Structure formats: C-alpha cells, structure tokens
Structures
1.
Amino acid sequence: MELMLQRIWAYFWLPETKYVIAAAVIVTLLSLRLLARERRRVTVTFIAFVLCLLGQLVGAVLEALDYSRLAVMLHELFVIGSGMALFRLLAIFVFRAILPRVGIVVARIAEDICVLSLYALFILARLHFVGLDPSSLLTTSAVITAVLAFAMQDTLGNILAGVALQLDNSLRTGDWIRIDDINGRVAQVRWRQTTIRTRNGEVVVVPNSQLMRGRFTVYGREEVASWPWRRWLWFNLTYDSPPTQVIAAVEQAISVAEIPNVADDPRPSCVLMDFGPGYARYALRYWMIDPQADDPTDSAVRVHLLAALQRGGMELAVPEQSLLVTKENEAYRKSLQRREGERRLADLRCFEILASLQEDELRTISQHLIHAPFVSGDVIYRQGDVAHWLYLLTAGEADVWLEFPQQPRQLFRTITAGSTFGERGVLTGELRHDTVIARSDLVCYRLDQATVEQLVQSRPEIAEAFAGILARREQEMKEFSQRYVEAAPDGTKAEMGMLDRIRSFLGL
C-alpha cells in the first residue's frame, strides 16, 4: 500500500506542480482583491483549476493500478485543462487589473484572441511532449477548417467584423448610437453581435457584419464628459411676427432660462429655415448634456419656448378653417371678448393698490393689459436691465435676487399672487435693482410705461401708494445689502424722496 501511494505521489506531484499551484493561488487572491466585478469569473476559473488537479490525481491513481493508457490520456487531458485555467487567470489579472492601471485599455475581443492563441500553443506543446506530431493534426484540421469556413460564412463575417469594431475603437460599450430607426446605448460588443439597450428597456441584437457594411451614428461616449448633443425643435409662426424679433426673443428666453440638462455653451440658437404656405418655419437648436433624458429635456424646452412666444404675442401657425358671413361666429367672438374682459376685471380687483379705482377706470386698464405667462425658471428681468414694464402677478410665485460684486447672488424675497413688481423702474426711470426669476409657473399681466403714466396722472393718489411701497422696499433692500457689502450701492437721488422721484420722472 505504501508503495502504491509513493507511485501515485510521484506521478502526480511533478517538479513544476508546486510552482503552478502557487502561481494560480497568488493570481486568484490578487484578482479577487483588485477586481470586484470579476470575482465570480475568477472563482469559477480557480474551481476549474482545482478540479483539473483532482483529475490529474485520478490519472495518477490509474497509473498506479497499471491502467497506463487510460492514465496517460486522463493525465494529459487534465494537464491541458489546468494549464488553460491558469492562462485564463493570468489573462484576467493582466488585462483587467495591471494594464488599465498603467493607462492601457485592451478590447475584450483582443484579450480573447491572446488567450485563445496561448491555449493553442500550449495544446500543441503538450501534444509534442507526449509524442504526437502536431503537423499531421494541423494538415487534417486545415481541410476541416476550410469546410467549416465555407459553411459558416455569415458567422465568420460577424466574428471578423466584431474584431475590427473593437480593435479600431469605432464602437465601445456605453456609447449612444443610432442605427436606422434604433436609438440606444451599446450594452455589449461580442464576437458575433452587438446588443443595444433602448430607452424603452428593449434589447436589440445587431449582427456585427451589418454594422460594418452599413452606417451608424455615435452621439455620446461614456468616457467623454463634454460631448453635448445638438437637438432641433421645429415650430411654425405666422408672417405677422418679424423674423428678427422671433429669433431674438426665442434665443434670449432659452439662453437665460434655467433648464436642466441644457448646456450653457454652446448657446442655444434660433434660425429661420423655410417659408411655407401661410407660415414661416423656424428651428430652435440647443445642446443636450445627457442623451438619456432626451424626451423630458425636449419637453421642458418646448414649454419655455411656447411661453416665450406667448409673451411676445407671436402666434403659432396652425391649420385653420374660417366660415364667412355667419352671425353666430361674430357673436361668439364678442362673447369671448366679453368673458375675457370680465376675467381681467376680476383679476384687477384682487390688487389692493388698485382698490380705489372706479369700474370704468379698471375697465380702461384691462384693455391695456398684456398677458405675460412665465414658466418655472424663466428670468423675467435681470438686475441692470432697462425698465419697460410693470407686472401684476395673479397666480404663482417668483423669487427676487440681488447680485453683488464677486459674490453669488442672494435671495431677497419671494413675490406671491396679488402683488405687483417692477414698479420702481417704470415710475422713476431707474435701471432694474434686482433680478426676478419664476419659482413656479406664473400667470401675470404687464403694463407699459405709457399706460402707467396715464394712470398715475389721472389718479395722483396711486403715485403716493406706490411711493410708500417702494420706499419700504428700498429700506429693506438697503438693510439686506449691508450684510454683503460695507456700503450698499444706492443709484437713486439721495436728496429726493421716492414720491418726489416719481413726480419728477413723470412730470407731475
């Protein structure tokens, strides 16, 4: 029995066995420590290595029992298996732990080719070691390979295309691509096919040969942080809106609005693209930062665009049908105008500063009101702008910000429904002293300077009411500004009170 155990040990434990086992254990431990995502693959490969060692032990037992032919076959089979497992462990450690840390990223297919080449060389070497002539085997396999290659032309074409795609880095995992009507992110580039995950959660499998023969567009890359994607939003307007005003209004509104996922640089641009029957066709072009949220970002930009067009009194060109010489339509239009007038009167009565006005005076003001909706994030005006409008807020909230030199802007107060703002610049001719940004969607109206002047001249007590409000806000603004600057800037005439400034500017 002891003699048999010695024979088993001598046949199993060769001089190089301890080095092979030590290398496999060290590489496995290092890979498990450094490669958290590859732990399952490393563990499975090491288990295969251990099983191959056990298979070699079984071959040694058979050799001790004088089953020499079967023992040699099993021994060589499991030696080849253990060698392939060791090469796999070394490849995982080198290609995925060592090379990336020195700045070398090797395509997965190139890694597989290197590993397969090592497998082939190792198998040929073992065959030569046991006395088999590999040349005869290669001659026979060449014929078989030719037959298989003819029968598997499409598969081989996909494999070669996959190798080419990864070796020249034209397509990588994580890329955002468009192929025909498919948009999505590359999940995997395998030997035979490339899988693309769309935004709907669908997995589309595309043969690699189709990618090589056709054309695909890459519009986003994971490792490239600054890769904005230009988007086009089309809209049609009637010819009543001058193109220069349309372009300026749209670019100004979208550039200053705080819209998530829209790049500040390059700036959004609006261009006149075409003339159609009864409409001019425009395109708003902006740059999207993250392609994942394409539809929500487009929707947010459309919301801001529509609000900007409505504020500018620019009508979208839509297909319409007119019925002429019908009394019902004329009556209907008058009914709409009457209901709109009543709604505006009801809104004006909510403003305390206008409570002293008579019904006919309110009705006159309502005829001069301009509907000015804003959406959350819209900048209504900025500090330092020239004042043209007085705003009456009927729904929503807006934040008032103060800007100081070399400091971030500070939130001064929040405007709520039923309040007016922007009065100071319109009544005194001063530049805007603050920046107002919509906190939520706003429903408000605005009055131009001529209408405000006419109102104040007809009702001087309104000037006094405005002066009281503005004087109180001016004092609050000075006290707030003193927290951030030693001497708060005051561009007003110090020798004159607020009411005197209003009278001086309006010529009362």
2.
Amino acid sequence: MASSLNLFLFFLAILISTSYAQNGLNLPIRKDATTLQYYTTIEMGSTRATVNAVIDLGAQFFWFDCDNYSSSSYVPIPCDSQKCELAKGIGCVGCNMPPRPGCTNNTCGASAYNPFQRVLVSQGFEEDTLYSKDHVKVPQFPYACMNTRFSEGLASGTSGILGLARTEISLHKQVANKFNLPDKFSLCLPSSGLGKLYVGGGSSSKSDVLKSLISTPLIVNPVSTAPAYTVGDPSDEYFINVQSIRVNGQPLSVKSSYFTIDKNGVGGTKISTINNFTALHSSIYKPFTRAFVKAASDMKIRSVDAVAPFRACFSSSTISTTVTGPSVPTIELVLPGNNVSWKIYGANSMFAVNKNVICLAFVDGGSSPRTSIVIGAYQFEDNLLEFDLVSSQLRFSSSLLVQNKTCSRL
C-alpha cells in the first residue's frame, strides 16, 4: 500500500512539474544596490543548492562557483559527444583529483568568462537538474563550474552568470527545447522590488502593457563579439538597428556609418545587462551631451561640475519631478519604421550621484569601440523587453511609468 502511495505521489509530482513547465519558467530579478547588477535565484542538483546568478544577455551559457557545490545527479558532458558539439565545446579537460562537479576527466571543454574580471577560464561542461521557485525543473541542464577566485566582481551573494545569449545551451533555448515551447523570453529589470525573467513564450504579464509593446527586428552581427570564438561565427548577442538619436525631438548631427555594422562586425547597437549605463562612441557621445545640456538649459536646468564617469551633471534643485522621473529632455533611439523609437525619460536618463547633483546617465565609450552604442541596463529599468527568437523581434514598452506601472507591479 505504501509502495503504491509513493508511486502515486511520484507521478503526481511529475504531472505538477510538467503542468507548470508548459506555462514557462518564471524567475525573480533583484538589483544589487552596490554594483547595480541584476540577478536571479535558481536551485541546482540533488541537494537543490540555491544559486544567485547575475543575468547576462551576452553570456553563452550558465556557470557558477562549484567549490562548495555537491550533487549526486551531475553528469559530465564527454568530449567529442553530440552534446559537446552542440555546446561548441573546445577540446577536453581533465582533473587529477577525486571526481566532483568541476573536476572530471574526458570532459567537454567550456570557456567560462567573467565579464567583471575580464577573465576567460577553461572549465568543463556538465549537466544537472535546474529548479525554479515556481515548481519547474529543467533536467539535464548544461553548465560549467568556476573556481571561487575567478568569481570576483560579482554582486555580493551571487556566485555565477546566467547566460541568455542566442545559443543552443542558453536558458531560454534549453527550456524551449525540453518543454516544446517557443524560443522567447521577457525581461523586466526592477528599479526596486522584484523584477521578472519569464522564459518560454514571451511574458507572464496579463496586463494591457502587452498591447502597447513596440516591435523592432533583432539583427545579427556577422562577426562574433564573444571573448572566444571560431572565425566565421556570428555574434550571439542582441543587436537592434538604431538609425539615429533625438534629444527633445531634434536629431543629432552624426554620421550614419556609426549606427551600422560593417563587414568586420564593428559598429551598431547592442543591448547589455552587464553595462550599467549606455556607452556611446565618442563621436556620438560628444554631440549627444552638447544637445542634452543645451535642451536642459532651455528648460532652466542649471549645469554643475561633472562627476565621473558622467560628463553632464545638473543641480537637482532646478529639476522638477514627473510621473516618469526627473523632468528633463526626452531621448529617443530612432528605429526602422514609421515614427518608431525607444523613448528614454528622466527615470532612465538621469542618475542621482548625491542629494544635490543628478547626472546624464550615459558614458563615453571611447573613439574606437567594437560596438558604437551599448544600451546599458539602467536605461531599461522598468521597461518590459520581450526577445522573440522565433520571429527575431524585440518587443519593448519604453518606460512602464507612463502607464503608472513598474516591473514590480506588473
């Protein structure tokens, strides 16, 4: 009788897990106040160890610090296997110590990258079960281990990077393949409270926000922007076709070539959750800041001394507050189509460095950056972004504050 009951409960648990999985994977997003990094929480392995991982749109796969990780359900991915080929593994790695996660022989090589240390470490790919707080389990989920000393730079309390790039072993692709769901995910980074990462079909939001989303194509940079790649590989990161920038409705006078991607993969615009603030090519940044300062002055906003890393700062006492944050000139990233743009209001364009000074939250990306515009995470806090890899479209809301909503109130 007890045996039958246990069997029933086992199948019931599978049924519940499968039912939840068909609705996608819902993960919370938190913001670390010190580093301004955004992270989520999952559980891994037989012990369901809690892992807080920084979200990286540009990372090819999931890695975390395994020095204190123990699991009886992990399985190394062998060299020269189909799974290794799928993961684009590089060579083989081994270990002369007792087998454990992160220490196995004849294991598919992974190039784990810490973008905050800018260090690339040769590790091994493994598989284990990933669990979410909403009862979904993702079996045979690929990841790589990282040693503690190579995990520095991550937000306090986090121990890994969760990759959301356009790869076969990213979280969204694995969820889509294992549960027969569309390869889509949505991201809503919080300014405070909890944001949302929803994987497997777009967005979990049932609000009217979805009806107002604007679409623009996701484009592919023909040359990889990864720290390690094979010649001929396209980029796994997310690029959009920003054609120009407007400040208070006035277009900047900037060469159009800076906005396009050339044959060497240089130029264009990508979206990053790792960059805190949007970085602009110097030839865009200089006229951009001049135009913003001029438009701010026309609004009787007083400039003050700059505070690094920002170049344009203002007296907070001369700026009023609106539903969309500080009342400052509106910035628009102009996109293909009839009057299509990503509008950036004060809540996303201004950063308070102290109680008296508030600065334009854009930085100089240098005179020869690989990518002309890197849209930083601060610029899309409380914006809903849906990445649709099926139709290769980005759908975005601009600031939810316009609709009296935030990521924590969707």
